[in-house]
Amino acid sequence: MKNLQGLKALIGSPRHIIVITHFKPDADALGSSLGLMGFLRKKGHEVTVITPSDYPSFLSWMPGNEEVLALSHDSEVPAEKAKALISKADIIFCLDFSSLKRIEDLEDSVRKAPGVKVLIDHHLEPEDFATFELWDVASASTAGLVFQLIEELGEKNLVDADIANCLYAGIMTDTGGFRHSNTTQKEFLIASELTGLGANPSRVAKEIYDTNSLERLKLTGFVLSQKLQVLSQYNTAYIMLTSQELKQFGSQTGDTEGLVNYGLSIKGIKLSVLMYDRKNEIKLSFRSLGNFSVNEMARKYFEGGGHKNASGGTSHTSLESTLQKFLSILPEYQTQLTSTN
Ligand code: 5GP
Ligand code: MN
């Protein structure tokens, strides 16, 4: 971190702190936030984690989960409470997102809040809104960056098993279980340190990957047998899911997570896309191999972004016209998608 001494001074005495992460948080978003919360509380701060939406039930085991202020469309009360806390906070940590629009309804509150903003993130092309930044696209996870910060502050001794499990979860999932190309020696070193500090790799893996509902597993089966399409001339696979289909399988938040990876598991496929109806908008998930940048595609055509090989986006037209738009842009990328690198 560039101005470590400045941050050290800022958190040197007890503060009111908000930790906020992106809409529909994943394990890295929530794990890094709760890990940081655990650490900051040990230093005597008053800390609240706010999420702009609900999140999957396979994250509810994380220590501190019961205290998260999770906004949901069903209730206006937490939104007002969250906005009041944001406006009164001394410090606002923004974790695992690089652009304020990813916190949806809370964007304005955070932008206008007088508290000092601290960004900890690993996504491409960050918006310039924070006073302190720990931003590193070479880091596989935000959780790894939180650990790095604690280390740089010389306070690794404060990391207990609860904090370690939260941070380990972020590293494990954002590397796809230590399989993606972002898995470097550094990720193993941090995971190893966290394990030494009490993280339990098999428990975290079980909680996140192996606590499916039967309906979710059946949704996966349905997707693989009925919905996965391959366009071999573009080395591309895609899945399109209607709200009706999601309803049919009693789909809950998080049930679609990971489906996009199946496309990439097909030999020769370089680009995989999942698109589905998420109430007011169409959500897209992109994954790629090698040099093909889904960040560029998501940013240019689907109001999104992320990482080179994993990005997301949204569309405000129908599912069918979103698919047509996606199909219509593929020729632009055909050379890249069929080259051998
Ligand atoms: P996922 O497809 O799993 O939702 O997201 C893949 C990656 O892209 C994650 O790092 C996620 O934070 C990011 N991402 C997902 N949706 C969006 C979006 O709408 N905008 C931006 N900028 N990034 C996104
Ligand atoms: Mn992340």
Q: Approximately how much beta-strand content do the residues carry?
A: 15-25%
Could you tell me the number of beta strands? 12
Physical arrangement of strands within the biggest beta sheet = 3-2-1-4-5-6
Query: Which ligands, by name, code or SMILES, are bound?
Result: guanosine-5'-monophosphate, manganese (II) ion
Oligomer: single chain
Query: How many separate structural domains?
Result: 2
Q: From the helix content, strand content and strand pairing, which structural class follows?
A: alpha/beta
Helix content: 40-55%
What is the number of helices?
13
Distance between the termini: 34 Å
Classify the fold: give the CATH topology of the largest domain. inorganic pyrophosphatase (n-terminal core)
Unreliable runs:
none
- Kindly provide the radius of gyration, computed on alpha-carbon positions and rounded to a whole number of angstroms: 20 Å
CATH domain class of the largest domain: Alpha Beta
**CATH homologous superfamily classification of the largest domain:** inorganic pyrophosphatase (n-terminal core)
Topology order in helix (H) and strand (E) letters: HEHEEHEHEEHHHHHEEHHEEHEEH
Mean pLDDT equals: 97
Structural shape:
globular
Taking the sheet with the most strands, its summary is: 6 strands, parallel
Question: Would you identify the CATH architecture of the largest domain?
Answer: Alpha-Beta Complex
